Amino acid sequence: MNQASPGQIVRLEPLVARVLANNPSPYTNSGTQTHIVGTTDLAVIDPGPIDEAHLGTLLTAIEGRPVTAIVITHTHRDHSPLAAALKERTGAPIVGCAPLVLSDGGPRADAAFDTEYAPDRVLADGESVGGEGWTLEAVATPGHTSNHLCFALPEAKALFSGDHVMGWSTTVVAPPDGDMGAYMASLDKLMRRDDRIYYPAHGEAIERPQRLVRGLMGHRKQREGQILRLLRDGTGAVPAMVERMYVGLDRRLLPAAERSVLAHLIDLRARGLATEDGGIWKPAA
Fold first, then answer.
1. Which PANTHER family match (predicted)?
2. Residue 105: pLDDT above 60?
3. Can you give the pTM of this predicted structure?
4. Are strands 9-13 and 16-20 parallel, antiparallel or unpaired?
5. Are 22 and 140 in contact (CB under 8 A)?
6. CA-CA distance, 216 to 187, in Å (whole number)?
7. In CATH, which of 3.20.20.190, 1.10.10.10, 3.40.710.10, 3.20.20.70 is domain 218-283?
């Protein structure tokens, strides 16, 4: 697949085109990729952040054709905010994941969420939306966020994997909403599918998806093993663990690494393998 620049419309296969938003960052790679499905009538998956230039490119790609649905994988602000403006211009309903409002007493992650997201229809696991020659079936994949959905396109044996499986990096799993146990279960769910190709929201298409998913599961198991060894060695504070586990990491990504390690620790505690007291973690007795 050819890496595009913002503003380019790339045809990936007969039913799928891609448009890159101009929002590169350490967390989004080259930016958020919006996918357009269909030929006669269309679905637009993850229209992206509020950006008039990106909206203009999407309307150019749509070429006046009817839009059956604006489809959202999850409500991080680089994925869903442009949906409202696209709905206003096309009249298409917003469908997909549920709204997500966090209410917890711990460190909050909702600054990254689109609090104005208002779907016309929430899709449960296995429910679908379709048009002429295409169907998008919701595949519930919580973990990165509790409301995350992937979307299968059975006509092409393709899966739009959102941020659950990406083509450039491992997925951030950040408590309080991100859940490592749910993330691993969702990876296992994808392993049992036979999709031909994944189209992620960040990074290039994944042409051997089961191999990558197996590798992601192995990577997380390795991280878990590292954490358990550090606990046994007496390293119980998350920042200290990150310093030892992520040598050479871009300093801008340290907060995400700390949240990922915390997600592993919370999962280990739920499984009876770790305990915590005052922010210091220990192996369970």
1. ENDORIBONUCLEASE LACTB2
2. no
3. 0.94
4. antiparallel
5. no
6. 8
7. 1.10.10.10
